[in-house]
Structure formats: C-alpha cells, structure tokens
Amino acid sequence: MMFTRMFVRLGACLHRLPKRNAQPPALWPPGITRSPCAASRTQHTASHSKSCLWQLREDYFELSVSGLLMRFDYVWLRDHCRSASCYNTKTNQRNLDTATVELGIRPSNIRVDEETLFLTWPDGHVTRFNLAWLVQNSYEGQKQRAVQPRILWNSEIYNEAKVPAISCEGFMTSDEELKQFLKTFLLYGIAFVEDVPPTLEATETVAQRVSLIRETMYGRVWNFTSDFSRGDTAYTKLALDRHTDTSYFQEPCGIQVFHCLRHEGTGGRTLLVDGFHGADKVLKEAPGNFELLSRVPIKHEYIENVGAYHNHMIGVGPVLNVYPWNNELYMIRYNNYDRAVINTVPHDTVQRWYVAHRALTTELRKPENELWVKLKPGKVLFIDNWRVLHGRESFTGLRQLCGCYLTRDDVLNTARSLGLQA
After folding, report:
1. Are 121 and 107 in contact (CB under 8 A)?
2. What are residue 304's DSSP bridge partners?
3. In whole angstroms, what is the distance from residue 320 CA to residue 275 CA?
4. Taking Cα atoms as reference points, which of 71, 96, 72, 70 lies closest to residue 82?
5. Average pLDDT for residues 385-402, to the nearest whole number?
6. Beta bridge partners of 311
7. CA dihedral defined by 217, 219, 225, 227, rounded to 10 degrees?
8. What percent of the chain has pLDDT over 70?
9. What are phi and psi of 184, to 5 degrees?
C-alpha cells in the first residue's frame, strides 16, 4: 500500500547472497525470504565488504545492502554516472548523451569499499556510486518508501490530534511558521490560517504565500454567492455531497482555498472527508475493488451555457490514481455530480466497477469519517483537492465565499525548498 516501509538503513545485519543454480522469483515482496538467484552465463563474481554483498550477472548487477536485494541494469548504471563529465552538479542536470551509451554495455571492472561502488567501463571511464544513494534510488528502495508521508484520518483521529491553525502574521513573515503549516497540510490534506482580513485581496495575498494561483474558467480569484451566476450547483443554497473539484480537468486542480467573507443566515457548514482514508479501508477489505478503481478510466464532464459562459470540459482518468512501483495512492477523482456517461468500460466490467464504486462511496459516507467545519470570516481553509473531499450543508441567508485554486507543483516546490518530504 501507499504507506510502505522506509528503505532499510545501512549497517544492519548482512545476509549471504543465494546460490547461483536456480531461477529467482518474479517479485521480492518486503519481508519474504529470497529464493536462490539465477545462474550467470558469463563472469561469476562475488565479493564481501562490511556494508554489502554483490554479484556480477550477465544482464544486471546485483547488490545486497543491509539485506535489501537490488538489481541494476548496466545501461542504467552508466546513464546515472555522477562524474563531472556526465553530470552538472551546479545545475543538477545530466551532461551525458544517453543515446551514445552502448545498450549492451558491461563494466570491465567492479570494486566496492565501505561506502562506494566503483565501476570501470570498457573505454576506461570510472563511475562512482555512494551505496546509500543506490539504496535510496533503486527500484527496490523506492518500492519500500512512501513518496509523501501522510496521516490518514477520520473525524475522531483529526480532532484528537488537535492540529493547530497558523496565525496570519506568523504565516506571512516566518518561514518556520510556513514550514509548520505545510507540514500539517502534507500530513492531513487540510490546514487553516487564522486572523486573515475578510477581503478578497487579503485572501489572495495569503494564497500566494504558498503557491502560484491557478487561473481557470472561473477566474483567478473567485468571489461568489448563491446567485446561480454560473452553471454549477455550488452557486446555489443547496447541500453539496462530498466530492473533489475539477474532476473534469485532465489534471484536476491540486489545492483549493476557501474563505467565508460573510454569512447572514443559518447552516452552510463545510464537510471534509479524507478520501485516502476511505480508499485505504477499501484496499484492506476488498483489494480487488481498489485495483479496479485504480485501473479503469472514466470520464468526468462539465457543460456550461449560462449567460456569457460557454464551457465544455472533459477529464479522463480512474477514480483512484496510484504510483505503479509501490501502489501508493496520490490522487482521488471523485465527483458523482460531474461523472459523465460511462462509455470507457466494457460491459463485462461495468457491474464490477459499480460494486467497487459503491464500496468506496459507502466508506466515504460513514458519519465517523465526516469532519464538519463552520467557515467564518478571518479563517482561510486550504484543501488538498487530490485527497480530501469537501461538501456543505444547505444554508439560508446571504453567504459570500471567495477562494482560488493553487498549482500543486508550486506548493510541493515550496515544501521541498523548506526541507519537507513532498
């Protein structure tokens, strides 16, 4: 699942490499005892150091560090050389023209010391790899490592965590406060900034502290009431069920910002649901349903013909989006309002898709998974639109809301620049 174990650290107990006279299994799940390795048809070389064991195979280089068995293609090793002639450390860009690397290349000599792998290539070029770097960047290492650490939550978990909001002043002036805000946002998928002046301009300024604003057909920063000025249920006083926004974009907006500027009436609480928590429940209880929802693409569609607004947007993708190497969920695209005609699914899969979708919907609609928040002037809410579903209860009176979408890449860029894993 997405929250797989972090890669094994250097310096743990060593394991002997297996014998060479049997075929390896197709997959090495974490924690499973390894079977004997395949025989090499050419050079057989085994070496011991305090940190690792290695074996030179015909088609790949086999390295075991602290019990983690890794296999590296020889072209990969040459392509990822970090020498000055192959890699520019100032720009962090590759100098080597990969198209010039012989696809059948093999090292002529290999040496391993306590921390470094040395490979000499037929032309005499020497490549050096730190063993820890190989562990972190190997397929096997990445398979055991979460791309982004998260805390899955329902209402009880979130409320008991007592996640603090960040004051506007500290948020705008202190990088440490911004880092704390982003850490909370990355872990939970939601975060609040308080004491923001209840104006569109102040909301825009706060949003830009985190990322670039993503302009859409709704504008750059929107300011709306229940006047049905756009062809969307959000512009009414009706209740809205949990959903993610812009599911009809090929790349749905990554972050959503809400600020209630005023409300003269009753109701209108905001509903928040951790979609990843619900999907994780489905994965544990019915893995087949999770797999189907992460594999079958469906369409979402937005058609608008109101006044001067004429839009027809179509987004295609599965409900659940996962990284293929570690099955980590990175986006949920869930919007029953905007789901288009299901015409991308063959007839023998449709019924199973509905069963899987119903299982996810049932989980997302459980009362214990609902976090209800009353948005008030001065309190700005940031939502990870790729993870947390939002909705609202119906309301009376005048309710004025403003907000915007943020570019996801720039939010993650800000987080990484402050030293966070994202």
Report:
1. yes
2. 311
3. 10
4. 96
5. 94
6. 304
7. -40
8. 86
9. -60, -45
Does the structure show a pLDDT above 50 at 36?
no
Angle (CA) 114 146 35, round 5°:
60
pLDDT at 60 over 90: yes
- Nearest-10 crossing angle of helices 175-188, 408-417: 120
Amino acid making up residue 287: P
More confident residue, 266 or 42: 266
| CA 88 – CA 80 distance, rounded (Å) | 12
- In this prediction the pTM is 0.83
Residue in the structure block whose two tokens are 């919007």: 335
Burial class (CB in 10 A: 0-12, 13-18, 19+), 170: middle
Structure tokens at 49: 């150091």
Strand order in the sheet with 52-56: 46-48, 52-56, 60-65, 68-73
Segment 218-232 shows an average pLDDT of: 73
Average pLDDT (8-34) is 33
- Note the Cα 418 to chain centre separation in Å: 18
Positive or negative torsion for Cα 375, 379, 385, 387: negative
What amino acid is encoded at 409 in this protein?
D
Structure tokens of 26? 């197709």
What angle is formed at CA 236 by the lines to CA 230 and CA 242, rounded to 5 degrees? 100
First to last CA, the chain: 17
Three-state SS annotation for the chain: CCCCCCCCCCCCCCCCCCCCCCCCCCCCCCCCCCCCCCCCCCCCCEEECCCEEEEECCCEEEEEECCEEEEEEHHHHHHCCCCCCCEECCCCEECCCHHHCCCCCCCCEEEECCCEEEEECCCCCEEEEEHHHHHHHCHHHHHCCCCCCCCCCCHHHHHHHCCCCEEHHHHHHCHHHHHHHHHHHHHHCEEEEECCCCCHHHHHHHHHCCCCEECECCECCEEECCCCCCCCHHHCCCCEEEECCCCCCCCCCCEEEEEEEEEECCECCEEEEEHHHHHHHHHHHCHHHHHHHHHCCEEEEEEEEECCEEEEEEEEECCEEECCCCCCEEEECCCCCCECCCCCCCHHHHHHHHHHHHHHHHHHCCHHHCEEECCCCCCEEEEECCCEEEEECCECCEEEEEEEEECHHHHHHHHHHCCCCC
**Position 140, amino acid:** E
